[in-house]
Amino acid sequence: MSHLLLIEDDTLLGEGLRQFFESYGFQCTWLVDSHKVEKHWYHADLVILDRQLTDGDSLIQLPHWLSLKALPVIVLTAKIEVEQRVEGLMAGAKDYVVKPFSHQELLARIYAQLRPLGESQLLYGPIKVEPGSRNVYWQNESVMLKPKEFDLLLLLIQNPGRVFHREELLNKIWGYQAFPTTRTVDNHVLRLRQKLPDLAIETHRGVGYRLVML
Q: Using CA atoms, how far apart are residues 76 and 95, in angstroms rounded to an integer?
């Protein structure tokens, strides 16, 4: 699980982003100013940094923070001028996102920064899965999956042709045994079929699911 350090003084935006990141399986520490940044910097894997905090321009302190530990930093700002973006990149940021922005676009940029070089890939027809960064592509287009959707997809793609009982999937992915009326697995399979049309998941009535071998 990657640890994000979010530094954003807009409480509505900050709380919304924190909840959004956690819904995708990230651990997220949210700060509203720069006072405790050093304490949390060492534990982060990536930083999302609002440029203009209530206690000043964060780019002034960014080189010092990066000297403590080199981290990918994505700067958030309302400033759209090219010169402002250049300043952010020159200060050590890896990316620059202008407000207002799409949460999904920011998520894609985070995944891109966390993606390790030379990462192994799993292919299933036009579907590509990158286990390390948890990226999924269909026909070369990025597909956003929630954490349990990704875990279920990865398990199926790693075991094509095998029939999984619903109870086994619940235990492996969610960590608990099934109740007779649970629809958790069924709902996640439905969403995978909707998001990845070429994913051939067979239903074995009364038993579970199997990914058809290509």
A: 9
Structure tokens of 45?
A: 């894997």
Provide the CATH number for the domain around residue 87.
Answer: 3.40.50.2300
Domain that includes residue 135, residue range: 122-211
More confident residue, 20 or 214: 20
- CB under 8 Å, gap of 24 or more: what pairs does 26-30 form? 26/1, 26/2, 27/1, 27/2, 27/3, 28/3, 28/4, 29/3, 29/4, 29/5, 30/6
Task: Report the distance separating Cα 81 and Cα 75, nearest Å.
Answer: 14
pTM, whole model, 2 decimals? Answer: 0.58
Whether residues 76 and 179 fall in one domain:
no
Q: Are residues 108 and 58 in the same domain?
A: yes
Q: Residue 54: phi, psi to the nearest 5? A: -65, -25
| 109 and 10 in a common domain | yes
